[in-house]
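Project standup — Tuesday

K.O.: blocked on the structure for the chain from last sprint. Re-posting the sequence here as requested.
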Amino acid sequence: MTFRRWDVISVPFPFVEGHASKRRPALVVSTDIFHRAHRACFGAMITTARHMRDVRPDDIAIADLAQAGLPRPCVIRVARVATFEWSEQIRRVGALSPRERQPVSRLLGLWFGI
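H.V.: unblocked you, prediction finished:
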């Protein structure tokens, strides 16, 4: 099982507050080099944007929901990144369209200093 940067995957995303998790989509933000070396990936949380009050200033809206494999409006929450080891629990649901990748890359560079 392999995934590529910019794939949208379905994963058990961990809660910050404890040991529980919730199945949700995530955007693969790590590189293929990292994937081969560690059989894992870094995923940025994707969450529904049900109400404008739930959207944070640094969330990035996903415009092409069909390509991303998402059924409803969602945002990428780049400030929430987790590591996922390859397992049968992870599945690909889509990919972020090329025109939507630059804002994510910019924010990753800002948060991680790269």
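K.O.: great, moving the ticket to review. Residues 7-12+22-112 form a domain with the SH3 type barrels. fold (CATH 2.30.30.110). The beta strands are 7-14, 21-28, 40-48, 60-61, 74-85, 91-95.
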